[in-house]
Amino acid sequence: MFVLVEMVDTVRISPWNFHRQLNEAIAEELNKKLANKVVYNVGLCICLYDITKLEDSYIFPGDGASHTKVHFRYVVFHPFLDEILVGKIKYCSQEGVHVTMGFFDDILIPPESLQQPAKFDEAEQVWLWEYETDEGAHDLYMDQGEEIRFRVTDEVFVDTSPTGPATAATDAPKKEAPYTLIGTICEPGLGLLSWWNS
Questions:
Q1: Cα separation of 45 and 138, whole Å?
Q2: How far apart (Å, rounded) are the C-alpha atoms in residues 186 and 192?
Q3: What keywords sit in the KW lines (predicted)?
Q4: DSSP class of residue 188?
Q5: Phi/psi at 49 (nearest 5 deg)?
Q6: What is each CA distance from 144 to 99, 100, 126, 156, 185, in whole angstroms?
Q7: In terms of DSSP bridges, do strands 179-185 and 107-109 run parallel, antiparallel, or are they unpaired?
Q8: What angle do CA 109, 193, 191 make, to 5 degrees?
Q9: Which of 15, 113, 140, 145 has the CB geometry, 3.0–4.6 Å to 64, for a possible disulfide?
Q10: Could you tell me if 26 and 54 are in contact, meaning their C-beta atoms sit under 8 angstroms apart?
């Protein structure tokens, strides 16, 4: 779920921070720049783990700040495919079940990955599983706030870099999440769903 990623960056330290230890100032700048941000094809950055190498610092003409090339390791949320995670249902829509882990909300379980037969209840805005037993069918609702286990089946990275001014002919671009996990609900026979016995 969490991995250490080796990165390299040039960190700018402003002159008013020269009185601080270089490692502390660099760590703060790296966390300001990367913490709680998605790096394309890497994952959601959480926090700095350690600094592995500091190269020489330079002061460029016209800029009183120091610029230091830094090699460091960062803690990143990037689950591997087929990993089983625990989350809570944030809400349901026609697109599927949207799941949150508290610190990460862009998780979608599409309708075809739900337990079948499943249907969307428009009135209640929830998905329900029509579970067949010897006594008949039971509707098991996937209510908001319910804890579920899901398997990561895919990940989608979207480049959200600026593309330039929009023309009048094109509509405003739709805001997309830079990193989305696609999942499937785990098999209830494994005892992995909290709402199985509800």
A1: 42
A2: 6
A3: Antiviral defense, DNA-directed RNA polymerase, Immunity, Innate immunity, Nucleus, Transcription
A4: G
A5: -90, -55
A6: 9, 10, 8, 24, 15
A7: parallel
A8: 135
A9: 15
A10: yes
